[in-house]
Amino acid sequence: MKSFRKELWFQTSERREFINITPQVQQALQESGIQEGLLLCNAMHITASVFINDDEAGLHHDLEVWLEKLAPEKPHSQYRHNGYEDNADAHLKRSVMGREVVVAVTGGRLDFGRWEQIFYGEFDGKREKRVLVKIIGD
Question: Are the C-beta atoms of 47 and 87 separated by less than 8 Å?
């Protein structure tokens, strides 16, 4: 069994963004040479998420609105965590959206459903962030 590791780096321009990272993850899979196995993709930051969903602008807007209703950014004073930083809402959003995804690798390809794509969800951006891709298999 082989193992492959790669970090993907992002510089986000907004506090909250959804970035389709499927092409970068597919590139990492090709670099690995692994044909059959499992791919783990996870955010390396406690205020970010990796998730699978449809690449559709309306859905992304709906996710943003829904997350903001669940954990509004402001007023910052509503959260005990906020003191040194003002990102308590980002921690909560990450908790809802999750840390990672695992995707089966079959025939050297991501074994997705029809509309599935991998996204990096940033909830406290405007700085450099990273995602880990770890692939195991043969």
Answer: yes
Q: Which DSSP helix (H) or strand (E) runs through 23?
A: helix 22-32
Ordered by start, the domain boundaries in the chain are: 2-137
Q: What is the 3-state secondary structure (H, E, C) of 52-121?
A: EECCCHHHHHHHHHHHHHHCCCCCHHHCCCCCCCCCHHHHHHHHHHCCEEEEEEECCEECCCCCCEEEEE
Q: How many CB atoms lie within 10 A of CB 80?
A: 7
In sequence order, the 6+-apart residues with CB closer than 8 A to the CB of 68 are none
Residue 12 pLDDT grade (very low, low, confident, very high; cuts 50, 70, 90) = very high
Look up the CATH architecture of domain 2-137: Sandwich (2.60)
Mean pLDDT of 81-98: 95
Residue 54 to residues 44, 58, 124, Cα–Cα distance (Å):
22, 10, 22
Q: Helices 57-70 and 88-97 meet at what angle, rounded to 10?
A: 120
Given a contact cutoff of 8 angstroms between Cβ atoms, the answer to whether 123 and 16 are in contact is: yes
Is-contact 108 34, C-beta < 8 A?
A: yes
